[in-house]
Structures are given as C-alpha cells and as structure tokens.
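Anyone able to model this chain together with coenzyme A?
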Amino acid sequence: MSKSYETIKVEREERIAWITLNRPHRLNALNDVMMEELLDALTTVENDPGVRCVVIIGEGDRAFSAGADITAFPKITPTRAEELSRKGQKVFSMIEEMSKPVIAALNGYTLGGGLELALACDFRIASEHAELGNPEINLGIIPGWGGTQKLVRIIGLRNAKRLIMLGERLKADEALQLGLVDKVVPFERLRDEVKALAQKLSEGPPIALKYAKYALNFGSQVPLEVGLRLESALMALLFSTNDVKRGIEAFMSKSKPQFKGD
Ligand code: COA
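re: yes, here you go
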C-alpha cells in the first residue's frame, strides 16, 4: 500500500483505503495513466484482507473528476476510442465486481467519466457544491464508460435522457432528489461523513457484504427467477461462515458482533 503513483494517491486509515484522484490542475480528469493506476490500486486493495472498505475522492475542493482528459481527444482514432471505451468499462466494472464496498466522495464537479466512475461505486456522498452530469454530447460524442447503460438504471430513462441528450448538469440537491446520490453534506463535513459510513461498513460481516453486493449487482441483470436462485445459493453459503455464528451469538447475548470475515 506504500506504492507511489503519478496521478492518484492511496492512503490507509484503519480498515479503510482512500484512493484520491490527483490531477487537480486538470480537475482530476482521467487520462490513460490514471486509468492504469486506478486498476493497479483497486487490484491491490481488493487483495488486501486488511481493507474492508474503499473510498474514492478527488483532490482539492473543485472536482471529483471532470471526466476523460479531453486534451487526448484530437489525436484519437476510432479504433483507439473503442479500446479506451472498453478499457474504462472494464476498470469501472472491476469496482462493481469487487468484494468490498466502495464509496464515491463527490467533492465537486462529477462529470462525464467522473460520473461514470461514481456510478460504479456502491454509495455516493456529495458535497453541497458538487455538480453532476454527462456533458459528452457537447463534444459531439456520448458517454463511453458505462454511462448510457448505468445512469438509466439508477435515475430512469426520462432523467437519463436529460443528462445525456441535453448535457444538463445537476446540482447536488437535485441529484439527491433523483436518487443519484445518497446524501449531500457541506464540503467541510464530507470527509467525516464518508469516514463514518466507511467505518460502519468496515464493521459489517465482510463475506455477507460481498454476497449482498453480488446478489444486488448481478441479480438485477438476470431474470427474476435466476436472481432468486442466486440469492438462495449465496444466502445458504453464508451459513458456512463463522461470522454468522458471531452474529447470532451477539444477538442472543445482546452484544455487538465482532465480525472477522471468516
Ligand atoms: N479534460 C482535460 N482538461 C480539463 C477537463 C477535462 N475533462 N476538464 C477541465 N479541464 C482543465 C481545463 O482545460 C482547465 O485547464 P487550463 O487551466 O489549462 O485552461 C482546468 O482544467 C480548469 O478548468 P476550467 O474549465 O478552467 O474550470 P471552470 O471552472 O471554468 O469550468 C468545468 C469547469 C468542469 C465546467 C469545465 O472545465 C468543463 O466543462 N470541463 C469538461 C467537462 C467534460 O466535458 N467532461 C466530459 C469529457 S468526455
């Protein structure tokens, strides 16, 4: 975890890994290096049993991320664009496939690829001054890192068309009303609020949290009957863990369970 990166920072606070997008002079725009480094950092924290929850945040107070780095666009070929799109989709899918909860702390502009990154996370907490949107249409393109497919699943077709076809930016309050973010807090409280949520998740039973995430993320992509079977199988598997014993014992003895992830 002591690895140093060029475009991101990774810090460990107890059982929480904080990943900071760190190109503030470009509003934390995502370039090739940042994508590679994100993939590396996500793989590292996924494989670290000491990490129970991951937070992704942007450096500074202006932006979580203003999206893909547009300065690379003038030279891009269609073939390369397709590769970049698939690469980004894979990196963000990795967040959805991770066994640990991931929180996006939206500390400002969350646009384009920045919003697509946030959509891949399990929870989104926004600062009051954050603005969210998919402005790609203004450049003559469409979102290519999952936005057209994922936004619609969260805020519905009508609202997704407003963001993607009109390029409208939502203020944090409206994003909250639409269910695009879970909570809006003053900027000065963002880190503390996110930390409190991350700590709560870190104290939960890791294997049950992993299977809850799988059942929710993958069960919602298949026919209901298939999703229900997936739920039953995962729920049954949890009865083989020591954590379920700890949970039940704690309930019986009216104490707080200390889950260990085995
Ligand atoms: N890629 C590369 N550079 C970006 C960027 C991006 N996506 N977003 C912002 N920047 C750069 C700006 O070019 C500027 O650099 P400069 O100081 O060298 O001129 C710097 O970050 C600060 O941004 P600026 O535009 O001056 O700030 P602002 O407060 O006036 O506007 C935004 C903020 C977010 C509204 C505006 O930067 C913007 O629209 N960015 C692009 C968002 C976008 O279209 N994302 C989807 C990309 S597919």
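The CA atoms of residues 152 and 161 lie 8 Å apart.
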